Amino acid sequence: MSSLKMLLRIALVVLVSHARAADPSPATPSVDAQTRGKYLVMTSGCHDCHTPWKITPEGPRPDFERSLSGHPESLEMTIAPRPAEPWLMTAAVTNTAFAGPWGVSFTANLTPDRETGLGKWNARTFIDTIRTGRHLGRGREILPPMPVPVYRNFTDGDLAAIFAYLQTLPAIHNRVPDPRPPAGS
User: Fold this and answer.
1) pLDDT tens per residue across span 54-105
2) Coarse DSSP helix, strand, coil percentages of the chain, rounded to the nearest 5 percent
């Protein structure tokens, strides 16, 4: 084999391996993506609503034993009080249910539980949900207080990293109730 052909084959192998390293498969996100996703989750307020709060001697605090598991299925909700102006909404003691002019919304289970969380989702579904503001990218509208207009500013790479991190969490089986329509609807 000529040295030119050998050199071209080596160059091709190097180019292909560099291309694969630069674009990891979405099915196997890199540790860097998961680390970035954790950083984004920790700094973007996800725990503020998706992790149920508990009352402690120091006041309300997120219950990290239920990290990002959404509104507790075991918490029976009474009819929400109607906020009066100048108030826009009311929140449950767990900070996972919110009532306002849109009705009552419950924060979703973001853990990878296959029945009640994001376990059957993929990164594209997660990205489409944020981009469209609709469940699964095409279903019902994502309700307040979820800051979809703000989160749409994330790049697809940021959202894929967030999803990659969420998939590393312990799966918590927690079926969140469906939203309730406004009173009188």
Assistant:
1) 999 999 999 999 999 999 999 999 988 888 889 899 999 999 999 999 999 9
2) 35, 10, 50
Q: Tell me the whole-structure pTM to 2 decimals.
A: 0.81
12 token code pair: 């091709």
Q: Report yes or no: 160 and 123 within 8 Å, Cβ to Cβ.
A: yes
- The whole-angstrom separation of Cα 53 and Cα 125 is 28
Taking Cα atoms as reference points, which of 59, 79, 75, 68 lies closest to residue 119?
68
